[in-house]
Specification:
Layout (H helix, E strand, L loop, with lengths): L15 E2 L6 E2 L11 H26 L5
Antiparallel strand pairs: 1-2
Length: 67
């Protein structure tokens, strides 16, 4: 398989390159911010986990002050 074809759809040409994995993808496989959908969801999961951790740390530091 050549780098000029989409990683997920070998029959389509790679119109875009993902900023994270540097793989060629067709426009259908590209997500926002220049990332392929696979990398986008990986980064979104990491951000969500970090937000949950930050919220739990903030909650443990403030306690029940706001309730």
């Amino acid at each position: 398989m050549s780098h000029t074809h989409c990683r997920n759809h070998p029959e389509k040409s790679a119109a875009c390159v993902c900023r994270a994995c540097k793989e060629g993808h067709c426009e259908e496989c590209m997500g926002p911010f220049g990332l392929c959908t696979s990398c986008f969801y990986k980064y979104a999961a990491v951000v969500l986990i970090l937000l949950v951790i930050a919220a739990s740390v903030l909650w443990s530091l403030t306690g029940f002050i706001f309730w």
